[in-house]
Amino acid sequence: MARVVVDVMPKPEILDPQGQAVARALPRLGFDGVSDVRQGKHFELEVDDSVDDETLAKIAEGFLSNPVVEDFVVRRVQS
Amino acid sequence: MARVVVDVMPKPEILDPQGQAVARALPRLGFDGVSDVRQGKHFELEVDDSVDDETLAKIAEGFLSNPVVEDFVVRRVQS
Amino acid sequence: MTDTVDNAKATPEQAQPYRELGLKDDEYARIREILGRRPTDAELAMYSVMWSEHCSYKSSKVHWKHWSANTTPEMKAKMLAGIGENAGVVDIGDGWAVTFKLESHNHPSYVEPYQGAATGVGGIVRDIMAMGARPLAVMDPLRFGAPDHPDTKRVLPGIVSGVGGYGNCLGLPNIGGEVVFDPSYQGNPLVNALCVGAMRVEDLHLAHASGTGNKVILFGARTGLDGIGGVSVLASETFSGDEGGTGRKKLPAVQVGDPFTEKVLIECCLELFAEGIVVGIQDLGGAGLSCATSELASAGDGGMHVELDRVPLRAKGMTPAEILSSESQERMCAVVKPSDVDAFMRVCAKWDVIATEIGEVTEGDRLIITWHGETVVDVPPRTVAHEGPMYERPIERPHDQDSLQANGPEQLARPSTPDELRAEILRMAASPNLASRRWVTEQYDRYVRGGTVLAQPSDSGMIRVDEQTGRGVALATDCNGRFVKLDPYTGTQLALAEAYRNVAVSGATPLAVTNCLNFGSPEDPAVMWQFEQAVRGLAEGCKELGIPVTGGNVSFYNQTGSTAILPTPVVGVLGVIDDVRRRIPTGIGAEAGETLLLLGDTRDEFGGSEWAHEVHGHLGGLPPKVDLAREKLLADILVAGSRDGMISAAHDLSDGGLAQTLVETVLIGEVGARVFLDPDQDPFVQLFSESAGRVLVAVPRSEELRFTEMCTARGLPWRRTGVVDPESGTLEIQGVGEIALPELREAWEGTLPALFG
Amino acid sequence: MRIGAVTFPGTLDDSDTARAITASGAEAVALWHGDADLKGVDAVILPGGFSYGDYLRAGAIARFAPVMGEIIDAARKGMPVLGICNGFQVLCEAGLLPGALLRNAGLHFVCRDQWLKVENNNTAWTTRYDANAEIIIPIKNMDGRYTASKSTVDELEGEGRVVFRYTGGNPNGSFDDIAGVSDPTGRIVGLMPHPEHAIDALTGPSDDGLGMFLSALDSVVAA
Ligand SMILES: Nc1ncnc2c1ncn2[C@@H]1O[C@H](COP(=O)(O)OP(=O)(O)O)[C@@H](O)[C@H]1O
Ligand SMILES: [Mg+2]
């Protein structure tokens, strides 16, 4: 068994209202020095060792993210 | 400037219907071998060097996550 | 290097990617002729988006003559603004003006269902705001491919949550819509969105930039790289996008919506209107700043100078062409007197809305746009906004139209025994096109704003406009694309008749019409024939009913490969009711001992019917007969009956015929009924025919005589068809059998959840 | 008798809440998120909507608004506070009520007419209801699944602080069918369904919601 992490983020040129809302709120809460925030999704998958990287990429690209508006990164964090 | 990543996940004992929906859908799409999925949030912050780890922890704990139901991890990924 | 006007003059021979931007050779030549030189990159971007099918209506405009030819002075009298404005405006009385419009967001919703549908809602809401109105409600007529096709499972849930995600967050109740399945929409779903808004008559704002020296203020979201090329993509043959002539990598022609920003923008605009500091206003939709600046300037009485480098950006290194064609959402553009600019900025600051003075109204008649002091656009704005190309596309009746009409439904096997008829009622109730829409509508907030009087499941959506007097409006949208395919002229009139009837059935008086004409490629003469027939049918139908077309929208190139969708001219009818408390609900059983009366004539009409489609997969023959004089009489009687409190419930007959109307009335009313069919007519025809001009009404026993005498006196056929039976808990149809309500409900409500979870 | 209704950017049901307050006979006072000023009101309602788009978490940003500091102080001194839907989420985020509201179990926005049981008719907002009254009022939200630790729920149940419970079906997977809870004093109440949309059978499923606004009048007069 391996733990696989997939992070899915809005593409840089795509509007990210969620991240913007956080970025605008921080100074109001008294936290300065954060110039930009982007918010995406974080998936943690428990994966059988038989699942290869190519399959993981397919899952991430075709299902966990929407390639029209999002990018993704896959990492195996332990095995 | 540093890039800081904050991952926020539902606590293990909290029901995660989004993760479950993903886990249930995968076999239907022909992807086997994924036994569990949990879904959380992934934040990427551009942070001034003056912002210390303690402040980041406060932002993550007091704002980006809700300690009643979520755990978080803060990482500096580059500086 | 920025391509300035000086540079364009100096390099007349420089090749330009006009074809990639969707312009034809002769269109490009015309731009050169207008300018007396080659256009700059920025000018080319403006002309290409503004001359796209979507913005210029170049294939459809020649047919607008039918609207004007069929609008009488009496019809015009109710209209405060009509075709040509952002949205039509009608006077509903008590000093209220109501504005409403339908728009399509079909292609983006196929590429990215959630965002495509969400931004479709956002766009139509800004259109309504640009009239000076407060948006009050939305509706969403939708069309999808086969219900069991795997791609429908991607497209439908995404579109529904996009419509809901945006509209709910905006605080606008969703009061109705349509969900229709047909394989012809498989690669090309239709997402039409309607918004209705209201204002006091004196507060009407039109999009004009007048008054030399007045300031042009851009407010709302920052401008980013999203949706660039969206317009040309929207309206051209392909989805492939373009390079924007800038050498930048291909960008997704999809916009991401931010409903929170739009909600704040609505409140901000309303406060600005209330302060009386807006001279002109225009929303930024398709074609973004290109459209807003050229339309404001074109409709005004002067020129305009815009300093493009002042536009607040979200992305680094954007070129003037990109800024002009960006379709970033949630932006508006206002013209404001210099003395009011401070007040304007104060209101925006209160709502945390970014507002920037980007230019001013000038003497003369040029639209001049500069970029860090250099001129990148210098054009006559009318040539961009209002004098685009216009095509008289070839029209030809399809070769197979005759054989389609000849292949009638007469040969189809019909159920005849009681058991067969009973089974057919349940099968039809559970069919995807007739099953309960609750799975969809539960995802929409129908309560917000506290004015919703009727929403799903109901023939029309109704909202209260004036809390003191109770004055309100009702809206319905309809279109049976199969009827339109069989006979576009009649089919479109049937769509009009159904929407008109749905409004009248709720007790409101139909007043005005909008439309969204969804068709295949205008370069296909057969499609243009359908289109021309549809426009003529609608225009002439409206004249006969005496209600004007106040505006609409055209969406061409709806096809999968070379196969066009069913022609789908969605018709929206708006009605007015002086007091919403006398609305007529759909569900029976509110009053003890109601009688069910069927109004209208039932004929053996199955061409294009739901039954032929669902049971036999058949499409052929002729659609039902349309009789608009009858529809008008029916509406008069329904409104009179509502006024005099004679009708306790009513539901019209449309898709699925009487059987489906009965199913819905008993399930919505949660009460049983006993129904007697006419012994002299085939039960199958009575139950499933889709003859137009029919309504099932429930009248309290005490009113029965008065009501039927009124019908008889005015020449409206009626038949006593049944009684409400609160004890029984079944729908009992004499000669067919009984169906217990739980069994019926399971059939009707189970289908969409089973398909889409 | 003056009851405040707070508007945050993105609040949607503020005018409906004001209408309901007026219908109950009280004076509705508009409170603005950016003003640390309660304008001398006797009770406060946080209406529904999507404050700040609910982009981070429902209610997470709104709870830091200037007006919230005043509300928290006043609430600690016993002023009746009602959080409806997004307002409930804000009260949980602010720590005035226990627990959290998570994405609906069905992962869809749900708008329906919902039956509720009034489990505690001794709070500042429920005295007008009979014990165990069943009422029908609309529910409409994306994040309505009430969640709290086992010990918190035990405490709530033990102290009678589950004020409303869903009956006839749980619309969102809330723990123990919990639809609304109160603080230990019974003066702060939060619920997901919308009483302000059930004040008139013309525009809602019933007028069952009016009781909450009327109860507040009683509690203020009594206090
Ligand atoms: N996409 C939708 N959005 C909102 N309401 C819808 C949608 N589709 C259908 N409805 C509603 O469901 C009910 C039934 O729809 P339909 O059978 O098409 O009505 P009708 O036959 O009277 O035109 C109506 O209240 C309609 O407005
Ligand atoms: Mg109808």
TrEMBL record, chains A, B:
Pfam families: PurS (PF02700). It is found in: Cytoplasm. One of its GO terms (cellular component) is cytoplasm. GO terms for biological process: 'de novo' IMP biosynthetic process. Its EC number is 6.3.5.3. It catalyses: N(2)-formyl-N(1)-(5-phospho-beta-D-ribosyl)glycinamide + L-glutamine + ATP + H2O = 2-formamido-N(1)-(5-O-phospho-beta-D-ribosyl)acetamidine + L-glutamate + ADP + phosphate + H(+). Keywords: ATP-binding, Cytoplasm, Ligase, Nucleotide-binding, Purine biosynthesis. Pathway: Purine metabolism; IMP biosynthesis via de novo pathway; 5-amino-1-(5-phospho-D-ribosyl)imidazole from N(2)-formyl-N(1)-(5-phospho-D-ribosyl)glycinamide: step 1/2. InterPro entries: PurS, PurS-like_sf. One of its GO terms (molecular function) is ATP binding. Part of the phosphoribosylformylglycinamidine synthase complex involved in the purines biosynthetic pathway. Catalyzes the ATP-dependent conversion of formylglycinamide ribonucleotide (FGAR) and glutamine to yield formylglycinamidine ribonucleotide (FGAM) and glutamate. The FGAM synthase complex is composed of three subunits. PurQ produces an ammonia molecule by converting glutamine to glutamate. PurL transfers the ammonia molecule to FGAR to form FGAM in an ATP-dependent manner. Part of the FGAM synthase complex composed of 1 PurL, 1 PurQ and 2 PurS subunits. Belongs to the PurS family. PANTHER family: PHOSPHORIBOSYLFORMYLGLYCINAMIDINE SYNTHASE SUBUNIT PURS. This is Phosphoribosylformylglycinamidine synthase subunit PurS.
From TrEMBL, chain C:
It comes from the Bacteria. This is Phosphoribosylformylglycinamidine synthase subunit PurL. Residues 13-58 form the Phosphoribosylformylglycinamidine synthase linker domain. SUPFAM superfamilies: PurM C-terminal domain-like (SSF56042), PurM N-terminal domain-like (SSF55326). It is found in: Cytoplasm. Substrate binds at residues 104-107, 126, 255, 327-329, 555. It catalyses: N(2)-formyl-N(1)-(5-phospho-beta-D-ribosyl)glycinamide + L-glutamine + ATP + H2O = 2-formamido-N(1)-(5-O-phospho-beta-D-ribosyl)acetamidine + L-glutamate + ADP + phosphate + H(+). Residues 393-417 are annotated as: Disordered. Residues 84-199, 459-577 form the PurM-like N-terminal domain. Its main location: cytoplasm. The gene is purL. One of its GO terms (molecular function) is magnesium ion binding. Pfam families: AIRS, AIRS_C, FGAR-AT_linker. Mg(2+) 1 binds at residues 103, 553. Gene3D superfamilies: PurM-like C-terminal domain (3.90.650.10), PurM-like, N-terminal domain (3.30.1330.10). Part of the phosphoribosylformylglycinamidine synthase complex involved in the purines biosynthetic pathway. Catalyzes the ATP-dependent conversion of formylglycinamide ribonucleotide (FGAR) and glutamine to yield formylglycinamidine ribonucleotide (FGAM) and glutamate. The FGAM synthase complex is composed of three subunits. PurQ produces an ammonia molecule by converting glutamine to glutamate. PurL transfers the ammonia molecule to FGAR to form FGAM in an ATP-dependent manner. Monomer. Part of the FGAM synthase complex composed of 1 PurL, 1 PurQ and 2 PurS subunits. ATP binds at residues 57, 101, 515, 552. Belongs to the FGAMS family. Residues 393-402 have a biased composition (Basic and acidic residues).
TrEMBL record, chain D:
One of its GO terms (cellular component) is cytoplasm. The keyword Hydrolase applies. GO terms for molecular function: ATP binding; glutaminase activity; phosphoribosylformylglycinamidine synthase activity. Its EC number is 6.3.5.3, 3.5.1.2. Pathway: Purine metabolism; IMP biosynthesis via de novo pathway; 5-amino-1-(5-phospho-D-ribosyl)imidazole from N(2)-formyl-N(1)-(5-phospho-D-ribosyl)glycinamide: step 1/2. GO terms for biological process: 'de novo' IMP biosynthetic process. Pfam families: GATase_5. InterPro entries: Class_I_gatase-like (IPR029062), PRibForGlyAmidine_synth_PurQ (IPR010075). Its main location: cytoplasm. It is found in: Cytoplasm. It catalyses: N(2)-formyl-N(1)-(5-phospho-beta-D-ribosyl)glycinamide + L-glutamine + ATP + H2O = 2-formamido-N(1)-(5-O-phospho-beta-D-ribosyl)acetamidine + L-glutamate + ADP + phosphate + H(+); L-glutamine + H2O = L-glutamate + NH4(+). The active site is at residues 85, 194, 196. Keywords: ATP-binding, Cytoplasm, Glutamine amidotransferase, Hydrolase, Ligase, Nucleotide-binding, Purine biosynthesis. Signal peptide: none annotated. The keyword Nucleotide-binding applies. HAMAP family: PurQ. PANTHER family: PHOSPHORIBOSYLFORMYLGLYCINAMIDINE SYNTHASE SUBUNIT PURQ. Part of the FGAM synthase complex composed of 1 PurL, 1 PurQ and 2 PurS subunits. Part of the phosphoribosylformylglycinamidine synthase complex involved in the purines biosynthetic pathway. Catalyzes the ATP-dependent conversion of formylglycinamide ribonucleotide (FGAR) and glutamine to yield formylglycinamidine ribonucleotide (FGAM) and glutamate. The FGAM synthase complex is composed of three subunits. PurQ produces an ammonia molecule by converting glutamine to glutamate. PurL transfers the ammonia molecule to FGAR to form FGAM in an ATP-dependent manner. This is Phosphoribosylformylglycinamidine synthase subunit PurQ.
